[in-house]
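YceI family protein
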Amino acid sequence: MSISTNSTPSTLLGLTPGIWTLDSSHSEIGFTVRHAGISKVRGSFDEVTATLQVSDTLEKSAATATIAAKSLNSNNLDRDAHVRGGDFFDVEQFPTLTYQSTGCSRNGDTYNLEGKLTIRGLTRPVTLVTEFNGVTVDPFGATRAGFSATTVISRKEFGLTWNAALEAGGVLVGDKVTINIDAAFIATNA
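Predicted structure tokens:
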């Protein structure tokens, strides 16, 4: 298959073709959602696995991620228990959130990683606006690549519709959720 003039060779960025695995101890999948219309609640997921299948071009490369829904951490035990329960994630019935890329394209200094996000059994298209942070070899000889990505989703589109009305008007939990990812991957074929 020939490489189109729109293709970005993965080696141009220093990414060796092959499998790269997420270094979860140096990565974070975080989120922010509006609370009571006046502040924001932040949280993250502590159990995430992900791989990059780097091909000869970024456009032919793929990314997958699996997040343990029970690993939600917003630094509030009561809130975390509520969000893990049936009103939100229902972790007993839907233990994972998943992301599977379907394509990647360059957009100036960033990349649009197109994919399918599944939450609570509902799959929707989601574009991660991704920044490539470079490749390095650490003092232990591992080749690492760093990425930052962000997107905004509607929680209602994923069946997360629970809410409570506020006396002054509005609702307790905003619909828009900003997802922020800082990810370090290690080449496993080096």
